[in-house]
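Posted in: Protein Modeling Q&A

I'm a second-year student putting together a small comparison for a lab meeting, and my supervisor asked me to include a predicted structure for ZP domain-containing protein. I've never done this before, so apologies if this is the wrong subforum. The sequence is pasted below exactly as I got it from our records. If anyone can share the structure token output, I'd also love a short note on what stands out.
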Amino acid sequence: MRIFQILGIVLSIIISVHSACDVCASDEHCEDPTCICNSTLYNNTGSSPSPTLDCTAGIMSVYISKCWLEQNGYNSTYIRLGNDTCIAAREIVNDTALMALHRPLSTNDCGNNVYINSTHVIYSNKLYIYGIFQNFIINISCIYPLYTRVSVNFAIRPLIGVTQISIPGTLSTLTVTMVIYKDVGFSSLLNENEPVYVESTLYVAVMIPNLDVENFKIKVLDIYASASESGPTFYLLQDGIVR
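Accepted answer (user: helix_wrangler)
Welcome! Here is the predicted structure, written out as tokens:
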């Protein structure tokens, strides 16, 4: 009886130590306990690293193939921005293993520099990639028009509206939220079933998360009411002037 008990303990220890890989991408294979790049899918081309940059929704996102880096003699575990504490992490995007960085577009974040000219705001940083034979420092930047006018239409119902707006001249988008309140303290939301009478006082809040308030401002130019999409419109605010 004691012999069987000892064997059971040994087996349970072996089972508890064994662990499977995390989810591997299509260009990786599992070598317990980690995912390893499949070197047969990438050639050593000798070309320079070519990251992808996305500036959507006020976030600077940088992506570069993890397995391409390793096959071409670069250190995939230490890719950073201007601030050496801002380091890329592995992500699987479209079933491919990438090293990725996601940082808000704000002044001084991870070494961001902001330049403003007469027409645009430019957020710039440097991407550091280290290799066996040579290192690369790549300049990256997100560029936004300094002044832009966009239209956002909300129906009274729902009283909390959310939409995506595109920034002209870029591939970027921002999320805009509009909320209607009944009180000057912006604490009591207008109920969907409450009637709104002529000359009622309403308080409208327009918010854009992730907007760099040091360099961008929100200006509401027009607010109007209409009983239906095709009905006449009555302006409460037009060209920034209360009607």
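A couple of things worth pointing out for your meeting: Helices lie at 2-17, 66-71. The chain has two domains: 26-145, 160-242.
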